[in-house]
Structure formats: structure tokens, C-alpha cells
Amino acid sequence: MLATTPPARAQTQGAASAPASWKEMMAVFLARQIRDTDRICSGAHTEISFAATMLAQKMHAPNLKLQLGGGAFLCNVADVEVDELPRTSVDYRIMAWAEAYFEHHDTFNHYGPPGGRGYYNDPAAWGGTNKYFFADKFFVGGVQVDRHGNVNLIGVGEGGRFRFRGPGSVGINDVTTVRDVFVFMTAHDRQRLVPEADYVSMPGPKTYRAKDLMGNGPQFIVTPRCVFDFHGPDQTAALVGLFPGHTEEEVAEHTGWELVKSPNFVTLAEPSPAELETLRTAIDRKGVLRS
Fold first, then answer.
1. Which of 209, 202, 256, 201 is nearest to 228 (CA)?
2. Mean pLDDT lowest for which of 28-42, 158-172, 210-224, 254-268?
3. Higher pLDDT among residues 75 and 232, named by residue
4. Please, what are the domains in the chain?
5. Quick one: average pLDDT of 127-155?
6. Where are the strands (E) in 43-192, listed by range?
7. What φ, ψ does residue 209 adopt, rounded to 5°?
8. What is the pTM of this model?
9. What is the pLDDT of residues 56-84, one digit of tens each?
10. Cα dihedral 208/212/214/218 (nearest 10)
């Protein structure tokens, strides 16, 4: 369910007086989708999703757990002073916030299926286990995303001849057991939002259904301009909300597929004064999201 309004909390003024940046808008939107006790996995270079998780922890989800890629930490900052928002999950300062941490290659010892190989050899014995054993929510970015929600982190070009090389799939296909995926793009133009991705790092929801993958796949594409869900024809991306200051015409001009409006279209509420106050004074004091 799309959450568009802030959790109930006393409104404050002060640090919230300046208009929200596009990164802050995205972080606040993502924070509103997080629920208490969620288990969340975020990649290596995603200050927007770090901020979203930290904001949710401090405002309405103190019991969520965050695993960061790279160092694979379990963090909770609900009652922690954060001097500077990390730009990467390999920032050594995150160790001070960790409830536990371990080497990255041990990730699958902790986040693999309960019972190890026995989970697959005798699945009936584990029928009462939460099947989304990796995480409830996962944030993923890319160099391309297409109208089916397929995300490409591999590169741009055909037949293995790259015009641009991305970081690679970096194990993202290993996390198909995540309940819900949020795709975020840090730019919105026709080079990045394309009719068909050149390569696929994370499949879209239609592929999840067709291949009977465990999990729901991508639920939203979040960009600096707007949010898409997948209620368009044949489970394709449909405009579900605009960030303040943007229009349908603008989004259509900068999107590589024909714009379709979701039946769930809503007005996205601006960040509340309380959300911006918390974001700017307790999470991002040095303005990483405003730079």
C-alpha cells in the first residue's frame, strides 16, 4: 500500500524552513513505506536509502533492522547521534552503530534459508518459517530501468559491446527472496528510463510472476520527478504520484515509454516540518542530501 502522508507526530519548525531537495523528497517518500519490525537490505552507495531507513527508525519504526551491503551490518540508530550521513555502507563509522557486523562473505550464513540445504530438501519441515528470509524490503538503483521494472546495473550497449560499463549485477539476483523491492533512480531522463533495459540485474514484477520467484519484485520506481507503480497494462510502470513542482507533461517528456496514469494515482504530500527537522538535525546535519 502506497504511504503518502507522514506518520502522526508533533510538527516543528526551524531546520525545516528551507525547501526540500530532490534527494530529501525521495528519502522521505521511501521512509513512509517502511514499517516497524521491517528487515531492510540496502546496497553499497545509497545515501538516499540510508537516510530513509534512519528517518523511519527515528520517527515511527524503532524496531526495524537494516543490513548494509559491503560490510553487512545490522544497524539501529533510533537513539544514536549521527554526526554525518554516510555516503557508502563501507564507511567505517557505521561500525559504531552496529548491533552486529560480520565479513561480507558471511552474509549468506546469516541471511540464507533457515536450516540451510534442508530448507530445500524438505521444505514441508519449514512450512511455518517466514519465506522472505533475506529481508522484507530492498533498495536497488541502476543505470537503466525499463517499463517492466527490469533494472540494469551492468552497462549500456548491445552484444557485449559496452558504450558505458556499470558496476555489474553485484549479487543482486541473490536477493530475489526479498518481499518487496524499491527501485530508485538518481536522474530521470530517456537515457535511464528506457522501453527495454539492455541487460537485467534485477527483474521486474512480471518476471517474478512468470518464473514463480519467491517475493513480489519491484513495487515502485522512485525518481527525482515522480513515482511509478506497476498497475499499467501487462504489469508495466504507471505514474502513481508526482513530487511537488513537477508535472505529468514534464515526466512524459523525460520518460522513454508512453506515460500511463495508475488507477492508484495520488497527490504526494511534501515532507512535513517534523520529517525535515528530524532529517536535517538528527540524520543529515552536514547536508549530504542537499549537496
1. 256
2. 158-172
3. 232
4. 22-119+132-290 (3.40.1080.10)
5. 85
6. 65-68, 73-75, 98-101, 137-140, 144-146, 151-152, 155-156, 164-165, 180-184
7. -70, -45
8. 0.88
9. 999 999 998 887 655 656 777 888 888 89
10. 10
Which residue type, as a one-letter code, is found at position 42? S
The three grid cell numbers given for residue 79, joined into one nine-digit string: 537513539
- Asked whether the beta carbons of 6 and 58 are under 8 A apart, the reply is no
Cell numbers at residue 188, please?
A: 530521470
- Alpha-helical (H) ranges within the chain are 22-32, 47-59, 107-111, 118-121, 205-210, 248-253, 273-278
In the sheet with 137-140, reading across from the earlier edge strand, the strands are 98-101, 73-75, 65-68, 39-42, 137-140, 180-184, 218-222, 226-229, 238-242
